[in-house]
Amino acid sequence: MMNLHNLPPSAILIFGALLLPLMPKQLRNLWCVVLPAAAFVWVWQVPLGHEFAISFLDFQLELVRVDRLSKAFGYIFTLNATIGLIYAFYVKRWAHHAAALIYIGSSLGVVFAGDLITLYFYWEAMAVFSTFLILFRGLEGSKKAYGAALRYVLVHVAGGLLLVMGLCICYQKNGGDLTFSAELFKDPHLGSWLVLVGFLVNAAAWPLSAWLPDAYPEATVTGGVILSAYTSKTAVYTLLRGFPGYEILIPLGCIMAMYGIIYALLENDMRRILAYSIVNQVGFMVVAAGIGSEWAINGAVAHAFCHIIYKALLWMSAGAVLYMTGKSRCTDLGGLYRYMPWTMVFGTIGALAISAVPGTSGFTSKSLTIHAAEQAHLFWPWLVLEVASAGVFLHAGIKFPYFVFFAKVKDWTLEKADIGEPPWCMRIGMALMAFLCIFLGVYPEPMYAILPYQDVFQTDPYQVFTAGHLVSQFQLLMFSGLVFFLMLPMLRRTNTIAIDTDWLYRRIVPMFYRFTDWSLNGINRWTAALVVDRLIPRLNHFFARGPYRVWVRVNMPFARLNRSMGEVEEFSARRFFYRQAMLGILPIGVTAFLAVVGLLILFFA
Amino acid sequence: MSEETREQETVATPPAAPKHGGFDPGLIRKLWIALGVACALPVIAELFVDRHHGHGEHFPVDWGFGFYAVLGFLACAGSILLAKGLGLFLKKNEDYYDHDEPS
Amino acid sequence: MDIVQQAPILMILCPFLGAFAVSLAGLIQRRWCYPLTVLFTAGSAYAGLGTLIQVLRTEGGVIRYRMGGWEPPFGIEFRLDALNAAIALMVVVVALLVAIYSRQTVASETAGKEGHFYTLFLLLTVGVLGISMTGDAFNLYVFLEISSLSSYALIAMGRGRAAFSCFNYIIMGTIGASFYLLGVGYLYIKTGSLNMTDIARILQEHGLYSSNSVRIGFLFILIGVWIKMAFVPLHRWLPNAYTFAPSTTSCLVAPLMTKVSIYVMIRIMFSVFNPEFVFGVGPRSDLVVWLAVIAMMVGSFYALAKNKLKMMLAYLVIAEVGYMVGGAWLANATGLTGAIFHILADGLMTLALFLAAGAIYYKRKSYNIVATKGLFGKMPFTMGAFAIAALSMIGIPPTCGFFSKWYLISGGIEAGHWGFVVGLLTSSMVNAVLFFRILERAYFEKPELPYEPGRQGKNALNFVERKGVDEAPLTMLAPLWAASLGLVLLGVYSGVVIDFISRYVNSVGFQ
To answer: Is A147 on the interface with B (CB under 8 A)?
Structure first.
């Protein structure tokens, strides 16, 4: 009996996805929920420390490497997938489900991969299959989706190229051992920097972050929910695994956190706001990875765990609004509290969670990261994180629900007669997520139990729910809220976008393209006209006809000698010689002639 | 003559957006009061709580009473102002990129 | 008696017996000809694989198969070493692929004559295989004539000017073969032996290299082989013969005949004679290389001017011959390695290109280059394979064309023959222009017919323009893609193949 623990969870999802087209329609969506649930069970059951490797060509590929870090991510990935696919129950397109499952499976593959080569394969698979989640929106009618999908896949392929370059260099330097751990990157060299950059692309680190807010809002409703979790958190996992304590990550994460807030404040599309919010939150995790202490890693993992849940909840509620209204811009929305009360409630719970309101999972997880920063005596990062926490409440905690659900009184039935709550599957999905947000906010112990470093809870006991902490947090949050409403007129939504670093490749590249087109194609056309169309045929004509004319010229005098010719006779004689040359003499005769002459030349040369 | 101008005026100006988005002003006032109370409560609560000024031992800065309130206020106000400032450069029309899209 | 040891003879017996079988079948039931041909060529290919494996495994890397157990120099032997084992395999694989491909084209272009066609097809295969495997100089002439006669008949089955072009080809081909025979005759007179290894030994032992007769004999063989391979300026027969032949014939003949003649040249130059003789007493090698450069230029530039696809490809064959002859005459190991590798590479490339051209003709009913417009939309698979072959012609990695050009250029630099290097590069550039023009037309323009459909009379074409993808049939696509993928595989595994070829090149003993 094959040891089921050797079956990578990615295989469960990927092969299960491949079975989808063969299944009867009614069972497909159910199968999609069963698969990640099965994977969850696998993660739950697999013993810590289990490893499974196969050898392929010259390499040892560690397909399964289980430790606390990968298990924690495994849990949340599979849990999120299960609930997300419950939410997605309404989707009819099986290819969409298949792409999502393969994408999720690949991210599980990355998390459980023990060596960089396995990781790389799964990494690329993630990039490719996640693109479909954006492409399918194009099939549903969005024109922008195609461009967004193209840019998305190009950025990820570029990142993958950097990753593989770094991988090759590391391979050389390390004598062929590519076991993925911090050991590999201990001494920074070109290879490790390239790998880091490759990972940071997926983590949406500034300035390589513009792809995320560009692509995610253009995805399908479910696509956005699923995309929000995996690419960025897988990248966080790789940073925690490979680069803990790399100091450059601290300022980088701080920049990401602030950048997310600023742009989220500028944006109009609700899903773009949420996308920038992802960057902001991942920034926290990147800072934690940079700190690298045991508390920091715990904090990052806890944050990732809870973030996936509340971020998925936010995207679910945004998706529900998009699904029911067909609109996603804040200027078009508002006043939905009356028509979609449950969605509003769930969305608000998500918003509160992301803001780390005490009683929600955000509070119990983010506090760990901030505590880690204090522990490490890093003042400025700590300050930036606190500022960013305030800012989170601003842009995601209040701005998002306010502009989407409140802001004005609007009779939606005039625009959409069937406005109402989204389908039951969406509501159940949101309800489950909201439940988890609150559950883990009130009773975080199960989450703490799966964190990588359990000893720190003994050696440095940290209480989340101290009165002092609660008071400080409420002060922070309430005054942020106050600022929001005081400065509300300044925050009026406009039909604009904020340009991001992708301006570089979206504007410059087309300019470059137009210039090369003009210059090179111009030269091409000119040369074609001159050389190909005129010169070559003339030469061809010359060489083809020339010899015949020579033959005619040689023979005509002799013909004329024979008898005097009138014009007609002369013409027919010419023609006779011409044809003689063309048909018989020249190909054969000249060849024979040249053969003999060549023989003589070569003999005497 | 004045009737025409008045007509022009009424025709030319669009209807003003409803104040507070159409919500009942009474409701709005009650919400503001609630917000004020919500802000005051934690500040008052701090009087009764020992905020384990652990920050003092870690960090050189801890401005004592109401630190977090002030931090939250300044942070958010600063963020919004910074966003507005950057928005002057960064905000562009929605279809800024559209004519560059690959066909 | 190990059946594996019989592989060389099986390789030739299969098509030989197949020719008989098919000619009978052609009388009884024409429909059997195609399956029988495929069957026998497949058997031959299988034996070819066995032969190659044998060569790889044998100590010393040479297998000799004696006909009827008679010892040379009286008996005839098949001698397979690193030089010709791969070439022989290539010959049978090409034959197999063209046989599979030929189903629809033979039926449409030479209807009613399938029996004759396939018999000649198999006989041609026999002839070319024999040339590539035999170790006896006269036996080579016999096989040369078998293959030539079959090819004359196959070409003459074409349309329009085929008969006339074939007539030219017959005359010139016979001149070539006769020169070869004369050369062998001279060698026989001087050495008393017809076996190649034996001749080499006797020439060595008796110090006959300075003899004028031997020298003349060598030159006769050389010129004869040059005529057969269409080396400039003796190339005039090739373009017309290949263009007007039926599609299947061109596909079979173009990759094989010229390449095998080049093999004969190399074999005579380096196995019968040796580098000291050829480059010392023989004709001036840099003259020959300059001729090769002219061949490249003539081939490439004329190809640029032609507006018939097959004519263009025929001129490209002439250019490729220039590469190979030049490479062999550079007088260094790198150049020779490049030339030999290019035999294999060019065989596949030419095959792929002619297969594609045949498929295009079959679907679009026109040889004009204008017919390739917009073809990426209508025949994506055909054009895809054509594109890969085009990349190989230009010399872009990882196709094999890149690696052979690499070696040829290195050999040219090593020999200090800059003309050759420049010529090779210019030719590659012209090839690039040529193919990119076609590919651009095929991709960006709308499909167009160079004639009016529904033309009546004896040239009525029964052509119906279908909407959307109208791809060639699978029996045509499969060999085409096999050839194109083979180009890539040959490129990726070029290291292995070059190692194999080097066994021979090292044994030649360049200084």
So the answer is: yes
